[in-house]
Amino acid sequence: MPNSFGAPEISVQDVEAKRKAGQTFIWLDVREPNEVAHVFIDDDRVITVPLSELAARQLDALPAAAQEKDAEIIAFCHHGMRSAQVTAWLRQQGWTNITNMTGGIGAWAQVIDPSVGTY
User: Fold this and answer.
1) Which of 7, 51, 77, 88 is labelled catalytic?
2) Among the residues of 2-74, which ranges form H helices?
3) Whether residue 61 has pLDDT greater than 60
4) Catalytic residue at 77?
């Protein structure tokens, strides 16, 4: 199901294929610290920047690697709605290669890696 923000999406299966192929991308987790403390994806590509921090600090909240407007970024959250919002917002700011992971970490746990857990 497309998101209401009109953000381009990528399936968890396609993200897993990129991960398995060793592709370089920034996996932007926009969940809050209390959520990350319970359930997280253990991968060096994951960078956590909570939506609340993005709201407060705007683009300054992004790490240097994500400041590049053509960097490949895959955003995710719990179910994919907050990350769709971030994806749409960054695209409005000129980012050209950011997509939203459909279904978020919930879909990841359900389809790709149940050991991640759910909440």
Assistant:
1) 77
2) 12-20, 33-38, 51-57, 64-67
3) yes
4) yes
